[in-house]
TrEMBL record:
Keywords: Cell membrane, Membrane, Transmembrane, Transmembrane helix, Transport
Database matches in InterPro entries: MFS, MFS_dom, MFS_trans_sf, MFS_Transporters
Ranges in coiled-coil conformation: none
GO cellular component, one term: plasma membrane
Membrane topology per record: Multi-pass membrane protein
Main location: membrane
Source taxon at top rank: Bacteria
Protein name: MFS transporter
Example of a GO MF term: transmembrane transporter activity
Length: 401
């Protein structure tokens, strides 16, 4: 097998893994609507059972970069596929709330494997890292987008347990195929140099890191709060009574429209100033979430689409910043830290949603999201000012020096 063949296969499976990572993690936020009806329990109480999963999603991502350095990214991705699929089946077998919470936690542990190694594998094997990061982001968010609709359809026709079993079995099957077709890591492609061939100089790295860290933390909260609560927001605030299937389908459409932004951004970050792209994307988070918080019906949906486009676009920008400013030998660990910060804090989105929903329902939840989105926008302004101070060129580095 040639190096190029291995790289192409690796990128295909990494994209599939990204799709499954978000799809499976977002099964429960839609399935919980069916579980609440089946067991006559409160939504706010049931949704808190997934807190452990989303905290583990971030917390357990920290050691993944170090494990990948020791055991190989390919082997860690194989563990992701098999372990994630098995944990799905484990969730489906639970009849008690405690058992459900424990297996959701296990599912969150395996879900944490993907992002630190997947992003690094994309940058390592892609000829055009910016475009490939954009497409990879789109794959992940198509997974997130399809989760509400597919879950609602399966839960309505077969049962919520099947909504976990079916994707779990498929995930295991793909993992076995991955191990056969991608037998080792490889060294990556001979990449073409992007618009700027040198890593941007950073005169004040601590200041830039602090600014970027604030954007990651605030963005992690908006990302998780929006993706977790979106099906229920549509269910409560569209202004008309819908079936679970229609609710899930509308949530899927909102996710898909937002995900389309990532493909476009993948090209923009290779041709325009990365700090300015960051700024232009970030401004739409508080605007879209404010519109959604203060309206209902179609206008509310438009606000959600705008917000999701900005939130999903931010994911690509964040990965591009890490790929651009971090040396190759440190990249996997840097991605681990980036996702640890964003997803661990984002894991507390569920109790925040539950508390705010019990106090002021979704207008208050959306208002809180808009505040976090505003922090991301403020961070983008500070990042652009600091980058201009050092006259830093922007581009995703196509290859490490």
């Amino acid at each position: 097998m040639t190096s190029n063949d291995l790289s192409r296969r690796t990128i295909i499976f990494v994209n599939i893994a990204h799709s499954f990572d978000h799809f499976i993690l977002l099964i429960y936020p839609t399935a919980v609507i069916a579980i609440a009806v089946e067991r006559g329990l409160d939504y706010a109480m049931l949704i808190t059972l997934a807190t452990g999963a989303f905290v583990a999603f971030g917390l357990c991502s920290l050691p993944v970069g170090w494990l990948a350095a020791r055991y190989g990214s390919r082997n860690m991705l194989a563990v992701f596929f098999i372990g994630y699929g098995l944990s799905c089946i484990g969730v489906s077998t639970q009849t008690s709330l405690h058992g459900l919470a424990i297996w959701l936690l296990i599912l969150g542990v395996f879900s944490a494997i993907y992002h630190p190694i997947g992003s690094d594998m994309i940058v390592t094997h892609a000829q055009h890292p910016g475009r490939s990061l954009g497409w990879n982001g789109a794959w992940g968010n198509i997974g997130a987008a399809s989760a509400p609709g597919v879950t609602a359809l399966i839960a309505t026709t077969v049962g919520w347990q099947a909504a976990f079993v079916v994707p779990g079995l498929i995930c295991i099957g793909i993992g076995i195929l991955f191990m056969i077709l991608v037998p080792y890591d490889g060294d990556g492609q001979n990449q073409e140099i992007s618009k700027v061939g040198k890593r941007p100089p950073v005169a004040r790295p601590i200041a830039l890191l602090a600014i970027f860290g604030l954007a990651i933390v605030a963005g992690g909260l908006t990302f998780n709060m929006t993706t977790i609560s979106l099906p229920k927001i549509v269910d409560e605030r569209l202004g008309t009574e819908l079936s679970l299937v229609l609710t899930g389908s509308l949530a899927t459409i909102v996710f898909l429209l937002g995900a389309l932004t990532q493909v476009t951004l993948g090209r923009l970050i290779e041709n325009f100033s990365l700090p300015m792209v960051f700024l232009c994307v970030a401004i739409f988070q508080p605007i879209g979430l404010t519109v959604a918080a203060t309206s209902t019906g179609p206008l509310m949906l438009m606000g959600l689409v705008m917000a999701m486009a900005a939130i999903y676009g931010q994911v690509v920008v964040n990965d591009a910043i890490v790929a651009s400013y971090v040396p190759r030998e440190l990249r996997a660990k840097a991605f681990s830290l980036r996702y640890f910060m964003g997803f661990t804090v984002g894991g507390f989105a569920i109790p925040i949603i539950a508390f705010l929903h019990s106090v002021g329902e979704f207008p208050l939840v959306l208002a809180a999201m808009a505040c976090f989105g505003t922090l991301v926008f403020i961070s983008s302004i500070a990042f652009a000012l600091e980058a201009n101070r050092d006259a830093m060129p922007s581009s995703v580095q196509a290859a490490s020096e």
